[in-house]
Specification:
The protein is mostly helical and 97 residues long. The chain contains 3 helices and no strands. The protein has helices spanning 3-33, 40-55, 66-96.
Length: 97
C-alpha cells in the first residue's frame, strides 16, 4: 500500500469529518433557535469527500473521464461547503444581534 494514497484518502476523510461537524452544528442551531440553517450542502460535501477517498485507491484510467469526475467532485464539494459555511456563519451572526 502506497503511503501517499493513505495520506490523500486521510485528507479527504478529514474533510468529510469537518463537513459532518458543520452539519451537526447546523442541526443544533436549527433545533435550539427554530431558525432555518443550511444542512444539505454539508451532506453533499460529506458524500463528495467520501467518494473521493474511495476513488483514490482505484487505478488511474479505470474508466474514461476518471480525472474529470474527481476534479468535478472536488469543485462541487468545495463550493457547496464554502457556501454553506458562509450561510451558517451569517445565520449565527444574525441571531446573536
Amino acid at each position: 500500500m502506497n503511503s501517499t494514497l493513505l495520506l490523500v484518502s486521510g485528507y479527504f476523510l478529514s474533510l468529510a469529518g469537518l463537513n459532518a461537524i458543520c452539519y451537526l452544528i447546523s442541526a443544533f442551531w436549527q433545533k435550539k433557535f427554530s431558525e432555518p440553517a443550511p444542512k444539505a450542502g454539508f451532506m453533499i460535501g460529506l458524500l463528495a469527500s467520501a467518494i473521493l477517498a474511495a476513488f483514490v485507491f482505484l487505478p488511474s484510467g479505470t474508466f474514461s473521464g476518471q480525472r474529470l469526475f474527481q476534479i468535478t467532485l472536488i469543485l462541487i464539494g468545495g463550493i457547496v461547503t464554502a457556501t454553506n459555511v458562509i450561510s451558517l456563519y451569517s445565520t449565527m451572526k444574525k441571531i446573536r444581534k
